[in-house]
User: Which sequence fits this backbone?
């Protein structure tokens, strides 16, 4: 029977990478943007043609962001299933880092 200490020795680096990526994702603010999306869009004065109310327009535009987030997660799950976890993880680390840096730069 393995002790928690033995499991932590085996999975130290994957655990460390997950903690760093999660922290970076929180610092960049992706989850905050998904939560406060309608308010952010409303403050930018973006609207949809034919809709005069800003709140409804912001909700519609935020729904496009949420739907693209869902489709991105589904595509990721399918790619992980077909390509394998190791290949997709090694490839995705560089892509995730690059997109997180790009997103943080754009939000700055």
Assistant:
């Amino acid at each position: 029977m393995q002790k928690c200490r033995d499991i932590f020795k085996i999975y130290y680096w994957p655990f460390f990478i997950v903690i760093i990526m999660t922290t970076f994702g929180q610092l960049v603010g992706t989850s905050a943007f998904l939560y406060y999306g309608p308010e952010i869009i409303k403050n930018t004065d973006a609207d949809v043609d034919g809709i005069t109310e800003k709140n409804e327009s912001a909700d519609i535009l935020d729904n496009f962001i949420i739907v693209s987030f869902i489709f991105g997660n589904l595509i990721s799950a399918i790619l992980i299933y077909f390509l394998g976890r190791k290949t997709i993880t090694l490839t995705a680390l560089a892509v995730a880092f690059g997109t997180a840096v790009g997103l943080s730069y754009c939000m700055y």
Remarks:
- The mean pLDDT is 78.
- Residues 4-107 form one domain.
- The radius of gyration is 19 Å.
- The CA atoms of residues 25 and 31 lie 8 Å apart.
